[in-house]
Amino acid sequence: MRKLPRQLVKNAIIGIIGIFITIFSYNYFSLTNLAQDNVTTKLVVTNERENYQFIIYPEKRVPSTNNWGTTMQVWINTTTGQNIVYRGTITSNSQGLFTLELSDNESIPDGNYQIIIQSASHLRKKIPAIYLSQENLVYNLTGYGQLFAGDTHYPQDNFINSLDLSTLARKLNTSDNINDLNQDSLVNSLDLSIQVYNLGRKGDEI
Question: Could you give the CA distance from residue 99 to residue 137 in angstroms, rounded to a whole number?
């Protein structure tokens, strides 16, 4: 039997080794990339955060339901009131629902907080202590009372007085949004009567 040339055998062995190295490398890097993909997916899920939503009603709207939208300043403080964890301007929808849109570097850990709300024509409302948790993302604040209307003089002083009466009187028969207290698209005697009813009323202190 004739022997194969030594160089031919050597080249065949090198070729076989090369094939095994290629197969091993492909499988190794495929498994590595799969593991990395799985880790990335888990991190995304872990970092998901939902935004808190709240419901509150301004008083004496016409119509009296599904007409609760308003623009307001909202503060979320620690219960002592010393540290602000959130502050922003938010507009609620017709259902009275508004959402805290937190940025990527903002967070509200589970715990007890003080919530302060004030719109451009309403007295300040303070909820002194409420527990916020990511397990319960929607909070109905209507049990703490409605937002009292009539503080329309700028700058607001959280007190309904003659300055507010004169401000509204100058806007009679217009569609001025701030002085249209019942949001029926016209500033008229109905809005004035709301203001007179609340005359002398003060909002919550911070």
Answer: 10
* E strand segments, the chain: 53-55, 71-78, 84-91, 97-99, 111-119, 125-132, 138-140
Q: Which two tokens stand for residue 136?
A: 């319960």
- The answer to whether the predicted template modeling score (pTM) of the entire model surpasses 0.85 is no
- pLDDT per position as a tens digit, 20-56: 444 444 444 443 443 333 332 222 222 356 799 999 9
Q: How crowded is residue 148: how many other Cβ atoms within 10 Å of its Cβ?
A: 22
Tokens representing residue 173 in the block: 């028969």
pLDDT tens figures, 130-147: 999 989 999 999 999 999
Q: Are residues 93 and 17 in the same domain?
A: no
Q: Are residues 8 and 91 in the same domain?
A: no
Could you give the number of structural domains in the chain?
2
Please check whether residue 202 lies inside any domain of the structure.
no
